[in-house]
Amino acid sequence: MYARKALYAAILLAATGATTPALAAEAAADPNDLAPGVAQSTVDQMRGALVENRDGVVIGKLADVVRGEDGELLAVVRPGEVDSEPGVGALVPLANFSRHEDHLRATTGQTVQSVASARERPAVAAEPVPGDIHLRKLAEGGKLQELAEETEPLRPFSDLDLDHDGVLTSSEAHASTAISDAWQELDVNDDGVIDRSEASVLYDDMYEGAPPTAEEVSR
Question: Can you tell me the distance from the alpha carbon of 9 to that of 90, in angstroms, rounded to the nearest whole number?
Fold first, then answer.
């Protein structure tokens, strides 16, 4: 395992032309063993989040997630605005990240300067991954088309609200992976339930409004 880590770092150094270890993406001990907050998120949900290094210093923003040729998920960290200077940035194994509310922290020792000078694409053959599939699914592997087909459509609020009291309890929300995974973000007033206005944020993102109920479709 340690030999693999050393080889991986050496490949990154050679590809980027770096001369110091700080410019290499530091390989995680167990590739694709993602932290819970990261595993339950999608790329779209994390894109643009501030990234801190292991010392708590902001080193850039997460621009994207790609899959390396060995199947490992890699975060693309860029300095400044995520859409600036494409091709410039650092590749950091996603297994190195943990999520802290609206920002991410990685166990990397990289600095603002090393991120700004690193070249992301030449370091490793990589392919983009879908932005709307939970990273846990992507980490488990499988064909992207099959994973996309498994992505759960967001069920109508009225179908989930079994007792028709206008709110979703945790047990009702459990029937929807999309809502249960985003519970903390949706329950903005922290009252232990999700009302229609809170849920509308998710529906607007996915459907530009709540999808019709089964009764409405049959009319």
Answer: 12
What is the enclosing helix (H) or strand (E) of 177?
A: helix 177-181
Q: Kindly report the CATH number that applies to the domain delimited by 157-218.
A: 1.10.238
CA torsion, points 130, 74, 40, 32, in degrees to nearest 10?
120
Assigned token pair, 166: 């206008």
pLDDT one-digit tens code per residue, 51-64: 999 999 999 999 99
Pick the CATH number of 2-147 from 3.40.50.20, 3.40.50.880, 2.30.30.240, 3.90.226.10: 2.30.30.240
Which DSSP state fits 119?
Answer: B
CA dist list (Å): 49 to 30, 96, 106, 172, 184: 23, 15, 12, 30, 17
142: region left, alpha or beta (phi > 0 left; psi from -120 to 50 alpha): left
- Dump pLDDT digits (tens) for 164-211: 899 999 888 877 777 877 888 888 899 999 999 888 877 776 554 445
Kindly tell me the burial class for residue 175, based on how many C-beta atoms sit within 10 Å of its own C-beta (0-12, 13-18, 19 or more).
middle
pTM for the whole structure? 0.54
